[in-house]
Amino acid sequence: MGSVELLKLFVIGLYLAGTILSLSGILVARKSLRSVGMACAVAGFALHTFDMGLVTSQPGNSLTAGAFYYSLFSWLLLLIWFLAWWRLKLGFLALTISPLALLFYISSLRLAPMHVSTPPTLLGLFFGLHIGALFLALALLAVSFGAGLAFLHLERKIKTKEPLTGFRKDLPSLSTFDRAVHWAVAAGFPLYTVGLLSGFFWAKLTWGKVFSWDIKELTSITIWFLYASLFYQRMVTGRQGRRTAILAIWVFALAMLSMLGINLLTPSHHSFSAVPL
């Protein structure tokens, strides 16, 4: 086993340990377990960052490899989680984001090479505006997904007047969850719009047409309309609470269906292929 493969195994081990310890610490209300879990996640993130640095330093267009996309998304999920934990004290997001980051990192190791036909002079621009913007938007959407789930759970407990036991006693208030949804949507939707528009621009340069009725493109536009509705309700009408939390959950679920279903299983311009076992 080479040093690169060993490095990836260490990343998986640390992410797995961080996920298990964080989830256990939250569910049994043990701060010490949560702290160790966070430390494992941070250590794994540091090694993951080093791993991506090795990939991008290799000769050739490593940024166009399908496996790197999933690895990058895993890295961005954790980056946004750490930011939300630092700024909003939302450690509970480990319940959703940590397992997702682990899933996408492992998935990145099972993808066959996939190269995008992008002119070298436009590669950096394409990667930053299209992939970077979209993945940041989806990572922020993961925050609204986790916050939305927590909001609905806590709201149901409060409405039914059930006692808050176990980890629920340490949950933030409903307003904190609602503020997290607001923060994620306010930052995420403009990024998603930039990513989508730059993708159409890239399609024009690559295939000579802006829209090709590809299933990935249709799904992305559907996600944009739902995301736009969520953004409008939060930022323009000022709507809060249950309805926007539910919409945030559905938008994120559709986005994950697109990334894990369409990209892996459906023939399209954006398909990735899994490496045979």
TrEMBL record:
Keywords, alphabetical: Cytochrome c-type biogenesis, Membrane, Transmembrane, Transmembrane helix
TM region positions: 6-29, 36-55, 67-85, 92-112, 124-152, 180-203, 215-232, 244-265
Domain Cytochrome c assembly protein as annotated: residue spans: 72-266
Membrane topology, as annotated: Multi-pass membrane protein
Pfam families on file: Cytochrom_C_asm
GO biological process, one term: cytochrome complex assembly
CC per GO annotation: plasma membrane
InterPro entries attached to this UniProt entry: Cyt_c_assembly, Cyt_c_biogenesis_CcsA/CcmC
Gene Ontology molecular-function annotations: heme binding
Annotated protein name in UniProt: ABC-type uncharacterized transport system, permease component
Species name: Desulfocurvibacter africanus PCS
